[in-house]
Every structure is written in structure tokens, then in C-alpha cells.
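Late entry, written up from scratch paper. The run itself happened at the end of the previous shift, but nothing got recorded in the book at the time, so transcribing now.
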Amino acid sequence: MSSPHLRRELGFFDLTLLLVVAVVNVNILPRIAGEGWRAMSLWLIAFVLFMIPLGIAVAEFGKRFPGEGGIYVWTRETFGDFHAFISGWCYWTNNLFYFPSILFILIGVLVYSAGPNAAYLGEKTNFIAIGALGFLWAVTLLHIRGLGVGKWLNNIGAMGTWFTFLILVIIGVVMLRRNGAPATPLTAKALLPSLTDYGGFSALSIVMYSLVGLELGSVMGDEIKNPEKIVGKAAFWGGAISIFSYMIGTAAVLIAIPSGEVGAIQGMMQAVTKVAMSLNVASVIPFIAVLISVAVLGICSAWMSGAARVPFVMGLSVYLPPALGKTHPRWGTPYVALLVQAVLSSALILISLYGSNVREAYEKLLSSSVVIQLIPFLYLFAGLWKIQSNRIWAALGFIATALGVILVFVPSSDVSNPMRFIMEIAASFIIMIGMAVLFFWIGKRKQARL
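Output as recorded:
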């Protein structure tokens, strides 16, 4: 079967912006800032043990196998079809959990910016569900229209991310000058990770998870101009900008408000509102909310477009329904994969909110996404070791990723029932892996009959 035609729409600038908006998730900052100043150490640990090895792996595999499919194709070339299917399946399905968590943040920001009278809507699960579904389908339809159109939401999202971090830096400077000291007390001891606070272990997994994304552009290898030349370069610049933004943004939040007051969902707007009110410039709050919303939408757009390419490539094989490998006759996009992705994410939005409050639903979705997302990176670093390239970095990346998978199961303080939380995360992982094995087995039998 001939491969469907995909259009090469992404240049170096587009790809770098795509990676920045994919990696730098403003919705993660409040969750990490809630750990206090030790978050800075967590960023550095994850950068050295995970992000540098990831950048090296992306550059190496991007040169060797520059086509569509990225991490799925890389695993197939190093470990064969079965492991490639597990890797690609996890890479795709984790995003089905991730999209709702991003959209919960988006709705939370918009509700918070609407003022105290609208605050109650942030806990109304019906309102959150309707808003999240609306944005999910709007972005999906935009990407069905074409990557040439959808990439502008990615690019605008990157700009929104940068402006958001610039505002956070300004907030930090203003509050530091006003108070004379950070709102979260800064000491040498506060910078060190704690070996007794188990919540910090869970945070390290989420920090590592938040640095995922440098490989996303390679998933769209057939839609990148000169991928052999620009993938590694874009990964370098995207990674450098991302870790700098994360550390500066975290420090700014901790300077502006005490870590114990940072909310996981509305923490960004809390910091902005506190400064704006203290300076009597409350009129800027809606403007900043728009910037943060654009940044969050950009994140959703980048991952939605990239993640859909994995089932698209897998649909070209016999292991998933071949309809997933279809492209739109007019716009040349993997529209079936995008539609299926949106339907499944819509179901998870409704399921996650059933019987949970919004905060716990967010924590559950985030943790489920983390444990499933990190599995492909175990394959990636094992593959880097197998091809005998940069083995020290490959080993560091593999060990750090394996540790991250284990630490996901340590619940944060926001979880009311830790045992139920652990069981639900474990169940989601087992179900997803079980489905992958089932689809592969069915596909293998179908292949044998051909």
C-alpha cells in the first residue's frame, strides 16, 4: 500500500516553537512550585538525568530514521514490531489522558479571571466538562483543516508562553522589591530535595514528565523540511529555552506567593492576581488570563497534532484499523486519527469527572498520563544503548525514566484516598497495556492470513 501524501509545512523556526510549546507546560508550574524551593533542584536533576539524554537520543535517531512516526519508528527499527507497537500505543494513549488535564487548567484560568462571582464554576463538574469538550473539538477541527493552519496556533501558543513567563518574572521582581524577601522563604536547606517527604518523589516524576516533548517534532518527520538537518538543532534550542523558562517561572511564582498557597489548577492566576491587586492594576488580570489561555491552547494544539501522527502511522500497518492511516482528500491531514483521538479524550473527560472533584480528577489524569507516557522513553534510551551511541547518557536516561515510572505511584497531598489513587493509576496502566497486547495479537493473526 502506498503511503498517503503529507505536506512538508514545518521549517526550523516552526519546529523550534513547536518543541518549546510542547515542552513548556505552564499548567505544570503551579504543581511544581507547590514543592517550594526544592523544585529548583528537581528541575536540575531532571535536566541532567532526563532532558540531556533525551536531546541526544532525538538528534541521533532523527538523523538515522527521519520519517513520519518518530519514537514509534525508532523503536521498531531497534526492537521490532511488538515493542514498537507498545511504545507507540503508550505514546499516543497517554495523550488521551493529557488533553483533559490541560483543558481543565484552561477552564480554571478563565473562571478565575472572571472574578469572585464566577469562582464557584471552577468546582462545577458539568461546566468544566462542557468547556473542556468545546475547546477539545475546536482544536481538533482546526488541525483537520491542515498543519499549515494548525501550526499557527502552536506558534501563537509559544509566544503566549514566553509572554506569560516574562510577566511572571516581572511579578517576581515587583514582589521582591515590595516585600524585601521571597514570599516562600529561601534557604540553602530549602533548595535540597527531602528524603522523608514522599510527595517530593512524586513531584520528580512530574518534573521529568514536563520535560518530555523534544521528540514530538520527529513524529511528524514527513512534514518537516530537511528533517535530517534541523531536528537535532531544533531539539537543542527548544530544550535550552524550555529548561530556562521552567526554572525562571518557578522562581518567580515562589517569590510572589508562599508555596503552600499555590493551587495546582489556578496557581498561575493566583500569583498574577495577588500582585495586580496589591499594585491597584486589577484591569490587567483579564489580559494576562488571555495570554495564559493562549499558551495552554498552544500546548494542547502541539500535542494533539503530534500525537495523532502515531496512530496514523500505526494504521498503515495491520495492527490498528487501516482507516487510521487515511488522509483527508483535500487537506492532506490524518483526519480519522484526529477524530478518533478526540472521541476517546472526550470520553475520558467525562469519566474522570464522574465521582471526583475537579482537583482530584486533574491529579488522577496527570498521574495516569505520566506513567503511560514514560514507557516509550524506556525503549528510546534502551535503543540508544543498543545502537552503541552515547551509552553513558543512554544509561542515565533509562535509570531516571524507570525511577520516574515507579515514583508516579506516590500520591501527592491533594489526594484524599491514597490507596484508591494508587489502584486507579495501576488499573489505567494495566488496561492500556492489555489493550495494546490485544490489538497487536489481533493484527498478528490478520497478518498471518494475508
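Residues 12-449 form a domain with the Amino acid/polyamine transporter I fold (CATH 1.20.1740.10).
(Scratch paper discarded after transcription.)
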